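User: Second chain of the day. Same drill as before.
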Amino acid sequence: MLLHGLQSPKNKVKEAVKKAIDVGYRHIDCAYVYENENEVGEAIDEKIKEGVVKREDLFIVSKLWCTFLEKPLVKKACQLSLSALKLDYLDLYLIHWPVGFKAGDKDFPLDERGLAIPSDADYVDTWEAMEELVDAGMVKAIGISNFNHEQIERILNKPGLKYKPANNQIECHPYLTQEKLIEYCHSKDISVTAYSPLGSVDRPWAKPDEPSVLENPKVKAIAEKHKKTPAQVLLRFPMQRHLAVIPKSITPARIEENFKVFDFELTKEETDTILSLNMNWRACPNQWSVEHKHYPFNIEF
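Assistant: Same format as last time:
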């Protein structure tokens, strides 16, 4: 499944979403913290009014931000996203990270060291409030993002669990192949969505010496063989691993290019070659939360 991801610059998102819907994307990945859900909502609304799509044709995802993990704040946060997106319901609502930040006006409340000020919220309690959103008809399904297998296990083993996570959205690309976590999730019937499939090349905190997946010689050679771009190979790769995948772009030509991944298939040898590139390198380590008690990346998977 191919999605259109929207962690993109404000003021350009509306046209990008309209283009994506015109090209054929139907699964749109949003989040409160991206600060562009108003633009996404305008684009969706226009395309529905134009008759290009119906609401039921679309699969819209949003995410509960870290400052809203305290149980009484969850419904309000969901309502903010629904209002911005001009929607009556979300198809999927995820806890964006298992780490709770201090509630308030700032999305990133930081201390003098530049680390996030934590809240006392426990994501297991947050999950109960997420379940209430399903019962209220505000969301069709609920899930998680950036959770490790022990954190997922805590939710699954919660007494009185009503709805188990439908999806875990995680960073996944050839330098972070996540084989053990994906195998675990699939064994629990939890689908997996891969974000940053191209290695998040435009992340603001990137350092000049960090590796580029798109420039990897082995990826380039496979792309040349199929007469495809490296980006198209990197999007096809997770699809063949039974993952949903989120390419992010605001460039019309790239939005089209990213969709042209259904007319070729990687061989087992090629997928094995790409898997062998793994170095457990994260483009998105959430450096603000490294000392948080629920920081998810202190264990292998």
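The CA atoms of residues 159 and 284 lie 32 Å apart.

User: Great, on to the next one.
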